[in-house]
Amino acid sequence: MRHKRTVMLAEIQQKREKMIETAKKNGLASEETIRCSQELDQLIYEYQCAIKKEEEHKKRMKISIRQMILLWKKAVV
């Protein structure tokens, strides 16, 4: 998962740099700059969703492990 996040962050940085370059060249209100900004927003949103999904998965795993430990303790006793 960390590799995926690293790749996503690299894509975000590249898109940010392209947007800045486009804004300097064509202006903040140009269609190309706005398109880059929207694409950057989408990448950031996807990154945030991936982080949230990963955190939810970790939480479910913790709960599952706790439940297994409790069941194992009951089986042993």
From TrEMBL:
User: Which molecular function GO terms apply here?
Assistant: protein dimerization activity
InterPro entries per the UniProt record, alphabetical? HLH_DNA-bd_sf, Spo0E-like, Spo0E-like_phosphatase, Spo0E-like_sf
What organism is the protein native to? Cytobacillus oceanisediminis
Q: Which Gene3D superfamilies match?
A: Helix-loop-helix DNA-binding domain
SUPFAM superfamilies recorded for this chain?
A: BAS1536-like
What Gene Ontology biological process does one annotation of this record name? regulation of sporulation
State the name under which the record lists this protein. Answer: Stage 0 sporulation regulatory protein
Superkingdom of source: Bacteria
